[in-house]
Design goal:
About 40% of the residues lie in helices and about 15% in strands. It is built from 10 helices and 10 strands. It has a 5-stranded mixed β-sheet with strand order 5-9-7-6-10. Helix 5 runs antiparallel to helix 6, helix 5 packs across helix 7 and helix 8 runs antiparallel to helix 10. It is elongated, with a radius of gyration of 25 Å. The protein starts with a strand and ends in a 7-residue tail after the last helix.
Length: about 350
């Protein structure tokens, strides 16, 4: 912690918890304590070094009762708890007496105060409030390091895509559509596929670029399709490697193999393969994307398609190369496509797999 007020020469440099007062305080070099406002009867956690936190945003899950335990779905390991900062400032919610939440509330308040780095922010006062330093609509995700270590190759950024799908973003964002949260107040999040985790652009898209393009449907469609192009680029690399092996193994049939080479260079073929071979997308979700893509194709007097990859590729060509053929009143359908397309891209990134075909 580093906290210095504009009307005070003293620096508050560390945080302590007063068990009798049942509250945290910022402490300066003269051992003067500045209490932090507290509404909860916190449960003390001694091993504070075993935790870290992230600040997230949401516009649909920021009520006081939107408090969830967060699990790695594949490993069934609890990573931590996620809750609005307002849950720390009220006892009028369902978890105000939950001993497990109260431990994480203790941890969260400590970590938030310890993270304060403010100089000459304002005049000093008699009491501190967490929201003096953090937005009132902030979402706090507290993770347990020892639990995270149970996950092979744990990396927080591997979960950003699926957190986005649940309505949580790194920047303020108006999420589209309802988000599914289990009635047991538990969120199960998944890592992106190991086949794509080295592509930093993907994390950048879900950290910031989708937020920046949210109010521009055409730009957002383009950004989502960039992910598809990354994945079909990997499909080409994988299939071309296999094609090269065929050539080296059978040099007598080079002429017969030319059709296969032409096939794998085709973008439409690889988009269809992405959906049908290299990923596992729920059939209903694929059908929804195909239907909404066909709506705009029909409005533009284009042929409807009967395969999700085919319909998406046709919309891609329409939007990128023949946008003017879409009637102006039908262009709002791009936003409807984006709502489903965003969910589909998240599933693609989580389930994309080339290694299973080797």
């Amino acid at each position: 912690m580093y906290l210095k007020f504009s009307d005070d020469d003293e620096v508050y440099s560390h945080v302590k918890y007063d068990a009798e007062e049942k509250c945290f305080s910022a402490v300066n070099s003269k051992n003067v304590c500045l209490k932090c406002e507290n509404y909860l009867n916190l449960n003390v956690e001694e091993n504070l070094e075993d935790y870290f936190f992230k600040i997230l945003n949401t516009d649909i899950l920021n009520r006081e009762n939107d408090i969830f335990q967060v699990y790695d779905k594949q490993a069934n390991v609890r990573l931590g708890w996620i809750f609005p900062i307002q849950a720390l400032l009220s006892k009028e919610h369902d978890y105000a007496e939950n001993s497990f939440f109260l431990k994480y509330a203790y941890i969260a308040i400590y970590l938030l105060l310890e993270n304060v780095n403010e100089e000459n922010m304002r005049n000093s006062s008699d009491i501190l409030r967490i929201t003096d330093f953090y937005p009132e609509d902030a979402i706090i995700f507290v993770l347990c390091k020892s639990n995270c270590m149970q996950i092979n190759d744990f990396c927080y950024e591997d979960y950003i895509v699926d957190l986005f799908g649940h309505g949580y973003s790194c920047l303020p964002y108006s999420a589209i559509g309802e988000k599914d949260v289990c009635v047991e107040k538990r969120i199960n999040i998944r890592k992106i596929s190991k086949d794509v985790k080295e592509k930093m652009f993907i994390v950048e898209v879900f950290k910031s670029l989708l937020v920046q393009t949210n109010l521009l449907p055409l730009a957002k469609f383009h950004m989502l399709y960039q992910i598809v192009e990354l994945l079909i680029g990997d499909i080409f690399s994988y299939e071309f490697t296999n094609f090269s092996k065929k050539i080296s193994e059978d040099t007598n049939n080079l002429f017969d193999l030319k059709d296969e080479l032409q096939k794998i260079t085709g973008e439409k073929y690889r988009v269809k393969e992405l959906f049908n071979t290299y990923s596992r997308i729920d059939g209903i979700l694929k059908e929804k994307l195909m239907d909404v893509c066909n709506e705009i194709l029909k409005e533009a007097s284009k042929k409807e398609k009967f395969d999700v990859g085919d319909s998406l590729y046709s919309v891609r060509c329409l939007v990128f190369h023949n946008y003017g053929s879409i009637p102006s009143e039908a262009r709002e359908l791009i936003e409807a496509i984006n709502e489903i397309f965003e969910k589909v891209v998240i599933e693609l990134l989580i389930t994309f797999n080339t290694s299973c075909l080797k």
